[in-house]
Design a protein that fits this description.
about 200 residues, alpha/beta, Rossmann fold, 5-stranded parallel β-sheet, 6 helices, 5 strands, magnesium, kinase, metal ion binding, nicotinate riboside kinase activity
Length: about 200
């Protein structure tokens, strides 16, 4: 039994969750772990001097729990409740992949935490220009809600900081343009993962 761990990281509102869900429908034995499920409760998240809750930093997340969840999945993916139903588009590409299990981990801060970096087979990073990201973010409802100035004062600067850190330290990351259509992004990542599956089978 083989496992393939795929990171789908990048900017807030870049389309990570949508892409992960669509890939899950197309890939065999596929599961998703979402970083958003590991946020600390609001009471444990630090507030800065401007009154902003610092959600867009590693300290706002139970990262060790996240690593543990991924490792547990890797140990026994078959018992994780992955449904091995017939895929919508079973094609020659996917024959003989019954014994390969795929985990897609999606989140905004995946590649800046060292213990996670030992686990990836493939890493993708969605980007968006500032204006488009701000526009999309303004249409979403968050719990707790974004306070005025939060995007410019905290969210975007933290994204840039972590992205710069990533570019300095990490290799083998596939950057994806989040302004492209969902179909284009899906097609690109899907065909790339199929190549990885073929390598695993060889």
């Amino acid at each position: 039994m083989k496992v393939l761990v795929i990171g789908l990281g990048g900017v807030t509102n870049g389309g990570k969750t949508t892409l992960a869900e669509k890939l899950k429908k197309m890939l065999p034995n596929c599961d998703i772990i979402s970083q958003d499920d590991f946020f600390k409760p609001e009471s444990e998240v630090e507030t800065d001097e401007r009154g902003f809750k610092l959600y867009d930093v590693l300290d706002a997340l139970y990262m060790d729990e996240m690593v543990k969840s991924i490792r547990n999945w890797m140990k026994s993916p078959a018992s994780s409740g992955v449904v091995t139903e017939e895929l919508q588009n079973t094609c020659d590409n996917l024959k003989n992949t019954e014994n390969v299990y795929i985990l897609i981990v999606e989140g905004f801060l995946l590649y800046n935490y060292e213990p996670l970096n030992e686990l990836w087979n493939r890493r993708y990073f969605l980007t968006l220009p500032y204006e488009e990201c701000k526009r999309r973010r303004s249409t979403r409802v968050y719990q707790p809600a974004d306070t005025p100035g939060y995007f410019d004062g905290h969210v975007w600067p933290m994204y840039l900081r972590y992205k710069n850190e990533l570019e300095e330290n990490a290799s083998n990351i596939v950057y994806l343009d989040g302004t492209k259509s969902q179909e284009e992004l899906l097609s690109c990542v899907y065909s790339d993962i199929i190549q990885e599956l073929k390598k695993l089978r060889e």
